[in-house]
Write a structure and sequence with these properties.
single chain; 308 residues; 2 domains; two-stranded antiparallel ribbon; 13 helices; 2 strands; elongated; Vpar_1526-like
Length: 308
Amino acid sequence: MSDKQSQTVRDGSTALQVQGDMTIGLSYDEVKEVFLDLYQANNYQVQTQLRNQIDEKVQLLSYIFSEKLESKAKAIAQDVETLKEKIHTIGFQSSANNSLKQMVCKGENSLTELLSDLLVEKITNEKNNFYIEDAISSLEFITKNDINFISLYYIFQYKIYGRGNGLFKNNYYEKLKQIYGEGTQDFEAQVEQYTEYFLNFDRSIYKYFLSLNPEAVDFNYLLSKGWFYGQTYRSTNIFGRGIAGLKHSNGATFTLDEYHAAIPEAQQLLSVFDPLKRIQDNPLSTIGELVAELINEETINQIRNKKA
């Protein structure tokens, strides 16, 4: 670090140091230097043999964050120079330091993508600022398995997927009836094809999450840590919405028993996540939705790639 730096720290405050003669850009090396300075300035010095591990974590977060920030800047057509300046703010540096501490202390590289997404969101979406900080802090108290469960929960409770042409699981029967006419052979054949497509896609979702070596989830713990809202209780059938909209060609709605018979992986996964049947159908909290939404596109892409 440069000799030309100074800081004023009041009692109980956190020192945030950045080199005064440094120009921040989106290059990996420059971001890495900022992150490394932050960690060294705000955390206890560690034994020499651990410094290499810390350097690896800092480099990993710096690299992925730099890539994601540049990609997001292009996607939302924001001025890159404006984004660069936000790296200097105390709010961002506090979040970055919190992220670095989690990566170093928890030792989970799997968090890197999510923490990078949250840091990019911190810079590009100011309206979610407090929620982002809360989400980063709350990640300290949950595991990768918990995040996988929240992601699965989000997919079935909050998202509806389709094949295109405006045909989704919750409307395909009525749409096909309008196109082909109820009772026609074409209509019945198309309903069977779409029903099979949606069943297969759901099956691929369950199989994907089974491949992640799931473990039992302590739902009450997640509830107490603010990942779910507790004031709404609907049922204990958390994946019941998986059957919403599914119909036979004669118009009969799929029952849950029929759904599980068609997709045994659904019951298999639920029995792993919830062996004691304590998980409830509570809504995700704001931070739960925020985190799940950030990783949702990547998760679905991985599922589709495996399915293909």
